[in-house]
Amino acid sequence: AQRVTQPEKLLSVFKGAPVELKCNYSYSGSPELFWYVQYSRQRLQLLLRHISRESIKGFTADLNKGETSFHLKKPFAQEEDSAMYYCALSGNSWGKLQFGAGTQVVVTP
Amino acid sequence: DTGVSQNPRHKITKRGQNVTFRCDPISEHNRLYWYRQTLGQGPEFLTYFQNEAQLEKSRLLSDRFSAERPKGSFSTLEIQRTEQGDSAMYLCASSLYGTGGVQPQHFGDGTRLSIL
Fold first, then answer.
1. In Å, how far is A1's CA from the nearest CA of chain B?
2. Exposed end of chain B (fewer CB within 10 Å): N or C?
3. E-state strands within chain B
4. Considering only CB atoms, which chain B residues are within 8 Å of A97?
5. Which long-range contacts (CB under 8 A, 24 or more apart) does B53-62 make?
6. pLDDT tens digit string along A35-48?
């Protein structure tokens, strides 16, 4: 069965410090992995997807198929990065998403 | 385009009543998804439409739930004989069918259902 695990419910970091959000998945095939973000009082929105290999708002994520992980990283956290972050997996061409439980990031000055 | 629109934003009803939610996707998007989110959890997939065809339903979607997407435009999600456990945020998302991998989904603000 496919599963997405985000082990940290809450991550508190100081502004300027590095931040890493962990995401591990289980899936028998070759899934597509995503990070979605929800800022306070805003709707859920895509942050980045593994096939794009982009850096969005300073965030990067590398798919490690050996460790079945897709951790999200940013070298210098900013206060505006405070949000709820969800890792998600899609295992079929229809795009159905399986989400993790989410990690709340709080960046303090 | 204001993005995905969901109505109502909040719905409070008594147990046993029927409720219906509406989702208006981004106009050119032919794929539409419904998810349910409870406190402390990520969204859980409920059902998927490609144009007007409902192609997948989760086992979470009991017989009391029904979804439609007539003419492949807006969609409705109806819950009959609501139960306490139906209290949740119901999210709608849409995307465009395309090549180059799974296309990003655009989410609405959701409808928060509270069962008294």
1. 14
2. N
3. 5-7, 10-13, 19-24, 31-37, 44-50, 53-57, 65-68, 75-79, 88-95, 106-107, 111-115
4. 33, 35, 43, 45, 105
5. B55/A94, B56/A94, B56/A96, B60/B36
6. 999 999 999 999 99
Q: How far apart are CA B1 and CA A38, in angstroms?
A: 20
User: How confident is residue B32, by pLDDT bands cut at 50, 70 and 90?
Assistant: very high
CA distance A4 to A48: 16
How many CB pairs below 8 Å do chains A and B form together? 60
Region A94-104 average pLDDT: 94
For an interface test with A, the pick among B32, B48, B91, B102 (most A C-beta atoms closer than 10 Å) comes out as B102
Residue A103 is encoded by which pair of tokens? 């990690």
CB contact, 8 Å: A27 with chain B? no
Q: Do A90 and B102 touch (CB under 8 A)?
A: yes
Q: Does A31 touch chain B (CB under 8 A)?
A: no
Closest CA to B65 of B94, B32, B110, B35: B35
What mean pLDDT, rounded, does chain A reach?
A: 94
What is the per-residue pLDDT across B11-28, written as a single tens digit (0 to 9) for each?
Answer: 999 999 999 999 999 998
Q: Position of tokens 């997996």?
A: A89
Query: Is the separation of the CB atoms in B45 and A90 below 8 Å?
Result: no
**Using CA atoms, how far apart are residues A79 and A97, in angstroms rounded to an integer?**
28
Note whether A97 contacts B: Cβ–Cβ < 8 A: yes
